[in-house]
Description:
0% of the residues lie in helices and 64% in strands. It has strands at 2-15, 18-25, 30-35, 46-52, 55-60, 67-69, 72-76. It has a seven-stranded antiparallel sheet with strand order 6-5-4-1-2-3-7, with no helix packed on it.
Amino acid sequence: MRTESFKVLQTFGLEYPNYKMLAQAKSGNRYIVWYPDSLGVDVGQEVLIDFNDDSWRTIDNPRNGRKSDIAKVSKVN
């Protein structure tokens, strides 16, 4: 398992049953990430994403310790 830091570019709130955000990797790639549990993230902050091989597993808000599984990810061009 590996962990990478992503910058939150935009939050979309709850789109039942998941929350949704736009996050940018250090590579510059941007992703829409859906997750079921509220993280209380702010635009501009960093979140930590855990990967198992190429599978996106969990997302963590290091500011408040909240963590959620990742339900879905879509790369944005």
